[in-house]
Specification:
With 158 residues, this protein is mainly alpha-helical. It contains 8 helices and 3 strands, in the order H-H-H-H-H-H-E-E-E-H-H. The chain has a 3-stranded antiparallel β-sheet.
Length: 158
């Protein structure tokens, strides 16, 4: 399934202004242009992870541009089900990111950000399900013909 920019912003809680700024800073976002731009679930996961790093760790999005392409590639390389049990390892100094089942003792990074992907994926799934339910309800309301009961209420008002 593909998602529009509005759906991406809603799923991760990103304002239109922040989205516009992020498009100028992140190479993976700047390559997707126009109102008909479509995002995969892996793209949304990558944005959700970046948003977590900006919100929780107070890292400026510009500082994350170096790892963004690797993060987008990693998030789009396998399904959410395959990523869910893993932890994400981000090394900002070397601009790398990888996944692992366990924290490897052989890691030689100065500072390493560790993100359990199950938390991000669970929240993302819930937000997307809610968004899809809202969309389905809106479609149902639009598809329903006006009932005769509505017509009777108007007639009784005379």
């Amino acid at each position: 399934m593909q998602y529009s920019p509005g759906q991406l912003r809603k799923a991760v809680g990103l304002s239109p202004e922040a989205y516009r700024h992020w498009k100028t800073v992140l190479p993976s976002l700047s390559s997707i242009n126009g109102h008909s731009a479509k995002f995969l679930i892996g793209d949304i996961l990558a944005i959700a992870i970046l948003k977590r790093l900006t919100d929780i760790c107070s890292i400026k999005i510009g500082s994350l541009s170096g790892i963004s392409e690797a993060l987008f590639d990693l998030c789009n390389s396998v399904s959410l089900d395959e990523l869910e049990p893993l932890i994400l390892l981000i090394d900002l100094k070397n601009n790398t990111c990888s996944t692992s089942r366990l924290l490897d003792k052989q890691i030689s990074a100065d500072v390493l950000i560790v993100i359990p992907l199950v938390v991000v994926i669970d929240e993302l799934r819930a937000d997307i399900m809610e968004m899809q339910n809202e969309y389905a309800q809106g479609q149902l309301i639009l598809a329903m013909p006006s009932s005769s009961a509505d017509h009777l209420v108007v007639s009784e008002g005379r």
